[in-house]
Structures are given as C-alpha cells and as structure tokens.
Write a structure and sequence with these properties.
Blueprint (H helix, E strand, L loop, with lengths): L3 E6 L5 E5 H16 L5 H10 L7 H11 L13 H8 L9 H14 L15 H7 L5 H12 L2 H28 L6 H31 L11 H16 L6 H16 L6 E4 L7 H16 L3 E6 L2 H15 L5 E4 L14 H8 L4 E5 H9 L3 H5 L7 E5 L10 H13 L4 E5 L18 E2 L5 H6 L3 E9 L4 H9 L4 E5 L3 H11 L4 E6 L5 H19 L4 E6 L13 E5 L3 H8 L12 E8 L8 H19 L11 H14 L16 H4 L4 H4 L7
C-alpha cells in the first residue's frame, strides 16, 4: 500500500503523490542541514525522519485522498503526530536514568510537536507525553510497522538513535557547565537550557517539514545559503569599506567615528562570543557594528547576520543605512509588522518562505520578532529558531529588553553563544549589567571599543543637570523659562497624560509646538517628525523657537537635534537617550543642558518598571550629590550607569525577571525549566 504524505493536483486534473517515505526522508535531510553547522545533524535528521510516521495508516491514506479531491474532511480527525512520540519513548524510563533517555524525550517532543506545542506537564497536571503514549485512536502498531517497512527497519532507527545521542552528549556537558557557572543549585537553569535544546530540534523539524511540503506542492525548489559564505562576506565588507572611505573626515566627530569603526573592525578577528558596543550616542553604532559583523562573519564563516532594533522608527532608519552599506538588496530580508504577509497555508513563495524561516544571509528585524523566535509558542516563531545558529546577532538599544524578561534573555544569550555557535553583539550607549542579574550571562561581554577619554570627549555635547522637583502644575513655567535660553527645547515625559497637559499649557507664544506619543499612528508620527525637523532648521536660522513635548517614543533612534532637553526623572538610560536628542551633531559650540526634573505628584503605580527605574535613578542622584567625583562628575559616565543598574536589579522583587504573569502562582521561567508547580506532586499548587 502506498501511503501519501501529500497529493498535488494539476490544472488538468492529473495528480502526483508524494509518499510518506519520500516526504520524511526529504524533511529529515532539510532538518539535518539546519543543524549541521553546529554538529547536530544526526538528531535533526532522526527527528525529521520520524515526524510523519503516523501517516502510514489506512485512515490517514483515506484522509489525504479525500482532502486532495475536495471532499469534506474534519481537520485533526486523523491523528498522525502521536505515533512517533510513542515509538521513541518505548523502552524509555519514566525517570530518565541515562542520557539516552533524555535524548529519546528531546527527539520525541521535536518530532511530535511539529504542528503545535504541547505541555510535558500541563496546568491540570496531565503529561503530554503520557497522553500521546496511551491514545487508543492513533492506530499505533499499524503506523509503526508500515513505517519501519518503508524506511528500512528498526535496526536503522536504533543505529541513528545511538548516533544522535553521541552528538548530544557534548551538548549536555556544556549545558551542565553553563548551569554550574551560575551555581544552579536547584537545576532550574539546566532544565531551561534543555527546553531551549528541545525548541532548537523542533525548529529544524518544522523547517524540514514545511519546506519540503511547500516545494512539493509548488513543484519548485527553494535556494539554500552556501555552506561557505566567506567570499560573499568579504565582498560585502569591501563594498562597505569603500563607501566608508568616502564619508567626511573633516571634523573631530567624523574622525572619532572613524576611529571607533576601525576598532570594531580590528576586534572582528576574535572568536565567537558575547561582545559589547558601549559608545556614546551619535558615535555611529550602526555602521561600526555592521563593519564588525561583516568582518567577523567572513573570518568565522557565519551563516547569517541578524540586526535587531526595539522600535520600527529605529529599524526603518537603520535599514536604509544598512542596505546602502551592504550594497545588495537580494541578500537582505526585512521582517517586521510593516512588511509581514499573511500565511496562505502551505502555498508559500520564496519571499514568504524567507519570512517564515529567516533563510536570507542578512536579516533586519525587531526586538519583538527576536524574542518571539526565542520564546513565542506559535510554530511560525519556533520555525525560525534554527536560523540563529552560527550567526552574528546584533541587538541595538539592548537596554530596552523588558525587565521582567531578564532571566529569559540572559539564559537565551548563554545558549545561543555556547550551544548555537552564535556571536552576540550588545549595542547601547547605556549598557545594562546583564552579568549581575539573578540569572546572569555566564560570559562577561568583551568590549569592542574600550573606554578612551580622548575619543569620548568629542561626543560630550551635553551635561545632565538635576533640577530638583516640582508638581506637574508648576512645571510649565520652568519649561517656558528654559525655552527662553535656547532656540529649541525637547521635554520628555513618563506618561501620556503628563505630555498632553504640558503641551496644552505651553503651546502658543509665537513658538512652533509639537506633540509626540506612542498613541499616534506611524504615518502621523513620521509626518510630525518631518515638520518638526523643518521647524528646527528654521529656528537655527532665526525662525520661531521650537518646543516638543513627547513621551519616551522619541528617546531612541530618532535622528533629530534640540538646543536643550528636560527629562522627567526616569531611568538613567532613558535620560541619556533623551540627551542624545540634544546638540546631536554639535550645532552648539559649547555643552548643552539636559535638565532632570522630578514630578513630585506623579503616580506610577500602574507603571511598575518606570517606577523602579525612577527609584534607582533617585538613588543615583543622591549618591552623585554626595560624591560627584566617584562618577567622574558626569551622570552619563559608565560608573553612573553601572551604579544605576545595580540599584535597579537590587530593587526588583525576587523572581521579577523570571516573567511573572498575573493570575499564575509561578513564572514563565519556572514553567520553561523545572515546572515544579505542575510536575511536582509535593508542590503547594498540586
């Protein structure tokens, strides 16, 4: 009996059948290819080979034929994902006694979850594995026997299982080392890493399954990235350096940007790891990080370069720069909400495939898409996870990682570097101390550009000044008096209600007034920024003064420059980012003021993160007032930023960074690691 995996109907009514054997072998080949560069081809191949074992039944054959010929079928009425799980777990110990038992579990999950995640232990304490083993309606023996006869017998699978286990043994050892580095006494981090390993294997299976399905149904093959990418990266690097040589080098700022870029180029000779690009605002982080990424990718033969930014405004601005300096749009995929296309099922063209699997050599995307790839439950997000292996991942404005995700983020970066062979570049003018969190980075980031007073001095265009505290109703006079001393002023608030109040109170008076907030749609924001940019140019030529009242939406990545800034007290990272919108290009000959002003009647109970950030900043301001010399007499110094982050992390409640969810007694980190609240019968929640 021929068991169909898919049936393609041509326009003339003729049909072509892809057998389960043909599909599983091809899906296995693709799944193995996904993980070959990190020496995990064998586990990927085996999980891909077994994933559709359940289609080798008469019931599944009838379902496939009925669906292909337009007959009404009930989706999910024929189970085909349970059988591979049961097959892999036969002979497995309920309490894993060997690494082979762990390998069986990982492969069973990866093979059987390719149409959707399931809980190993769910909220009702049921076992997803046990459910798949005991399901009576899956025709298990029929599927197993037919499948084994198709693919060459049980001995072939047993040999492949041993090979897969041998490849995973060093991974288990590295995961143990990672957890020991953080003194993981309860094993929670080790369990979390195992979960990421299961996700990695699953992503390869989903990629292999969906890619082969799409190729068969579309009767076309999709292109692969070359196994040796070095020459391509060298060509792109040469293009970039030729363009960089044409950039201005007349001013001290131009020369300093060039020096920073060259230091990044020089550091690219180092091996994969975690790097930190901690340079002042306006120093050319985007181009410097690209230069490092291209040179590093060429040396280490990386598969792809992935750039992320937290906001679309930053991403779209950076994307234009990156495209220009890379010089080949065919290599680049932009993936964010403005370019997403709907999923039309299995009929995928090349562009849709790239959106699904990040198969392009260079990917420009948002922080949200990166975090979704790491943690979201949809198979679309999981599918991309393998694409992070053997890559250079540049994370711009890394300080925007949500505080409640610190644990998940840090451990994921550890996993990407140690297991997936990735190089991660953390970019920010206000670098968080990720190595000092409750679950820290195990590798201290290497500075791409060590602090150099001569280089940094060129970018000292502002001075942060604490201006005390006032009630909200008393702030407008301070704003207007400050505006009198400059041609333009930016005021950044913590809340939309504050910005709206100040905008109404300060508008008029022969001043060009603008308001920005996240409530505005992207088109409205772009239009406002364009008009404001023109007004700022006029103000420098003697035109009307410009006043902008904004929320945090203007803080990062907006290339605009004011003569002065007022920032309501928030985190020092936010304050420094706001300062980056002041005297940005050295328009003023001296140092421009950035006033930090505490709104004394501000209510932040509903904004817990901002409240904690404000509290940590106030501790910094108090310490600075007592001993400014300890902070280099500069609230934007590395000493000040590090002090702030230490105070912030100390102020966080226990497990705050574990992604606690209202209504649950446990955290996302707990559920993705030991899951004791649901898997342990001795738990208080049992």
């Amino acid at each position: 009996m021929v068991f169909p995996a898919h049936v393609r109907i041509r326009a003339d009514g003729s049909e072509t059948v892809q057998t389960v054997y043909e599909h599983c072998e091809k899906a296995a080949e693709y799944a193995g290819m996904c993980l070959a560069s990190i020496d995990l081809r064998e586990p990927g191949y085996l999980a891909g080979l077994l994933h559709d074992m359940g289609k080798c039944t008469a019931a599944s054959k009838q379902y496939q034929e009925d669906a292909a010929h337009g007959k009404t079928v009930k989706r999910g009425s024929v189970i085909h994902t349970f059988q591979c799980c049961r097959f892999l777990l036969e002979g497995h110990n309920a309490e894993p006694e060997s690494t082979l038992d762990v390998t069986r579990e990982l492969l069973a999950f990866a093979a059987s979850a390719h149409h959707g995640l399931y809980d190993c232990y769910g909220e009702n304490r049921s076992s997803g594995f046990q459910h798949r083993i005991s399901e009576n309606g899956a025709f298990y023996e029929e599927a197993r026997d037919n499948f084994l006869s198709e693919i060459g017998g049980l001995s072939r699978i047993e040999e492949m299982l041993q090979s897969a286990n041998e490849k995973l043994l060093p991974v288990y050892s590295r995961l143990e080392f990672l957890s020991e580095q953080n003194q993981d006494l309860d094993g929670s981090e080790f369990s979390f890493y195992l979960g990421l390993l299961a996700r990695l294997l699953l992503s390869a299976v989903i990629e292999g399954d969906r890619r082969d399905t799409a190729e068969f149904l579309n009767d076309s093959l999709f292109r692969d990235i070359s196994a040796d990418m070095r020459e391509m990266w060298r060509e792109r690097l040469a293009h970039m350096e030729a363009k960089a040589a044409e950039m201005p080098s007349d001013t001290p700022i131009d020369l300093a940007r060039g020096a920073i870029s060259q230091k990044c180029r020089d550091m690219a000779k180092n091996k994969s790891g975690i790097y930190r690009l901690n340079v002042p605002t306006g120093s050319g982080k985007t181009l410097s990080s690209l230069r490092f990424a291209l040179a590093h990718a060429a040396q280490e033969n990386k598969r792809r370069i992935i750039f992320t930014a937290p906001l679309l405004t930053i991403l779209e601005q950076n994307a234009q720069v990156l495209r220009s300096f890379i010089g080949d749009d065919d290599l680049i995929l932009e993936h964010h909400s403005n370019v997403l296309r709907p999923d039309d099922g299995e009929q995928l063209d090349q562009q849709e495939l790239l959106m699904e699997n990040w198969g392009a050599p260079e990917v420009i995307t948002t922080m949200v898409q990166l975090l979704n790839t790491l943690f979201d439950g949809s198979t679309t997000s999981i599918r991309r996870f393998w694409a992070l292996t053997d890559s250079v991942i540049v994370i711009d404005e890394v300080q925007t990682v949500p505080h409640r995700m610190l644990t998940l983020f840090d451990l994921a970066v550890n996993f990407l570097v140690e297991i997936c062979g990735a190089t991660v570049v953390l970019c920010s003018a206000t670098q968080p101390c990720f190595e000092e969190t409750a679950h820290p980075l195990t590798i201290k980031p290497t500075e791409l550009v060590p602090y150099d007073p001569a280089l940094w001095k060129v970018f000292e265009r502002t001075r942060i000044i604490f201006a005390g505290g006032r009630r909200l109703e008393d702030i407008p006079p301070f704003v207007l008096s400050t505006l009198e001393a400059t041609e333009s002023l930016l005021v950044v608030c913590n809340k939309k209600t504050e910005s709206e109040y100040l905008f109404r109170a300060c508008s008029g008076r022969q001043t060009a007034c603008f308001h920005l907030s996240a409530s505005m749609c992207m088109a409205h924001r772009r239009d406002t920024l364009k008009k404001m940019g023109a007004a700022l140019e006029q103000s420098r030529l003697g035109g009307p003064r410009v006043l902008c009242i904004s929320t945090q939406v203007i803080e990062a990545g907006v290339d605009i420059s004011f003569g002065g800034v007022i920032r309501l007290t928030a985190g020092i990272d936010s304050i420094i980012q706001s300062a980056g919108r002041c005297n940005r290009n050295g328009e003023s000959p001296g140092v421009s003021p950035v006033y930090v002003l505490t709104c004394t009647d501000e209510k932040l109970a509903a904004l817990r993160d901002i409240s904690m950030e404000k509290g940590a900043c106030e501790e910094l301001l108090n310490a600075f007032a007592q001993d400014p010399g300890w902070f280099q007499k500069n609230l934007a110094s590395d000493e000040a930023v590090s002090y702030y982050y230490r105070k912030l992390y100390q102020s966080m409640p226990e497990e705050y960074g574990d992604y606690t969810v209202r209504g649950l007694r446990t955290s996302i980190f707990s559920m993705l690691s030991g899951n004791l609240a649901y898997a342990n019968p001795d738990s208080e929640d049992w």
